[in-house]
Amino acid sequence: MGTSSSEHVDVPAYLARLGLEHEPPSLGALFRLHAAHVERVPYEDFEVQLGRVTSLDPAVSFGRIAAGRGGYCYHLNGAFSALLGALGYRVTRHPGGAQLPGDPAGIHLNHLPLTVSGLAETPEMSWFADVGLGDGIHEPLPLLEGEYKQGPLVFGMRASEVTPGGWRFDHDPQGSFVGMDFAPETAVMADFADKHVELSTAADSGFVRTLVLQRRDAEGVDSLRALTLSRLPGDKTVLESPALWWTAIEDVFGVPRGGFTGEEQDRLWRQAVSQHERHVAGGSEISPSA
User: Where does the chain cross the membrane (predicted)?
Assistant: First the structure.
């Protein structure tokens, strides 16, 4: 896997993946970049499901994104922060901790959040940017205490109670996790290496236990957990055939089936079926945590 990090990303190719033109740093441009990323680049754990521990190198994550894939927080925010830096934004990675139901809040390093500062329109204000929360924010939030509505979800920002000088993001009660705290210090990708291996391999990891894809837009969230496709707000549907399942993965989440070998496609389908059967039988479904 390795912990060395390259910040080089192909900016024109990345912008093409997001469907955007190059423009100088601004608050409006940051919002457009963020919204396009969560709409077009899915939160997904296919590599974990295939038994592979991926690199945390932002350049490697970008290569996967450019090929039509996604990842989870380390990959998505790692690559996105490299893009922002290449575009001239002042972006900072932070040590963070996502809180699942029943777990304590803390800087568990199971999440990598970002802040952006120094924008001409808001020179004294920093912004919380995070394209790696799955069903989280659609656009950046100001680092100001308050509630913020985006589509059907309402989020909160407040001072963290677990890390001095840090911030707490409170998720909507409809969301897949309780909230996330992050420290004011700067993080580097290597800080997350050990936790990344744990999340990719541990038997009790949500990424190991459940195949998941999520995609956010201005009106809500699309999610696939094992065989269950859901829309928030909206209904849930169980996809009971490989054809329906792969069609949803391609059409809803934009992940090309052709990016996997036939053997990998069969393995992913079989694992999703097994996970769904376990859930129906009463086994717990653990939400991913990064």
Answer: none
